[in-house]
Amino acid sequence: MNLRNYVLVTGAYWGFTLTDGALRMLVLLHFFNLGYAPVTLAFLFLLYEFFGIVTNLLGGWLASRLGLRFTLVAGLGLQVGALAMLALLNPAWPELGSVAWVMVSQALSGIAKDFTKMSSKSAIKVLVPADAKGTLFKWVAVLTGSKNALKGVGFFMGGLLLTTVGFAGALWIMAGVLGLVWLGSWASLPRELGKAKTKAAFTDLFSKSRDINVLCVARFFLFGARDIWFVVGAPVFLRGVLGWSFEQVGAFMAFWVIGYGIVQAATPVLLRGRAPARGTAVAGALTLAAVAGAIPLALGAGGPANIVIVGGLAVFGAVFALNSAVHSYLILDYTDGDKVALNVGFYYMANAGGRLVGCLLSGVLYQLAGLSGCLWGTFAFAAVAAGVSFKLPAEALHADKLAQARVGADSGD
Asked: What is the CATH number of the domain that holds 57?
């Protein structure tokens, strides 16, 4: 294995992940503090999620033609540009102009995120010898596990920077540090990294089996269920209703994501090595719906909000992580080896689509019915995911891919 290039790729992905998590908290908490309505807050992130759909669909095809170095460096450069653009936001601008400026910067950030994620994960496959499966498992597991932890650290870092150096100051610091990462990656990574010998046809992007299409629909509703409360509802409730500080909100979101990653990585152990199939996916989604519905019911019954929200969402995170890891196994199980990159890209496109719809509904439902309304929306989406999962094959197709699922599982952020 080329350890030098692995270190460069992983370092670049780490640097990006920290800024991505911090940026989400900075934007959300800063504009909420300025008095923006929940629906307006949701709109700030819509183009981020929309361009995630486009990039996931096209990124693998583009990388096969131009190489992974190109898409990785492009992702880092776009994120530096997005951070600098946002730092130039003029507080004197009217709200409409500010919203448009933020949405465009978030669109750049959304493209950057999926270019960087796709390039980093695909690069490891290229860097490890084809017959070294144990090494591949080890190093991809390191990348995936550290990504979730650093995303959580980024949430906390965003809240802390907002308090200590302010909105613009935080953005310039992150742009400067990530700019150094971009420069190092551009100068150090080999130009031919990840270029495919056989170019994928554009039509291959849409050639999917029935099983993959059904799984992608279930994935759409699964991640929509999470983001209905995750994007706007919970952070705004914690800050605006419970009066938590920026640091406390960031810390809660950080620990949620880190815990989610730990459970995700442990899913094959929790399932005792059994390859999941339709029954596991259905049971997981139904349990998720039950947890989502129990939280507003407990609040309505007079339960203490701090305990109900923190405890309920912690349980939700554990169950959601199990669901996500099962899906990550199934996409590998349903995929032919020579189309894995295209099919996984299509799968993450569905993931991004669910986050886009969940993002919008998070603002709308919170404005109409508060956090309880968001959680009932989550309940509905999780129930639909369970219903769709009934259409999946009853048995695993390739049980030997279970170990790969542990490697491939991530938050989809």
From this structure: 1.20.1250.20
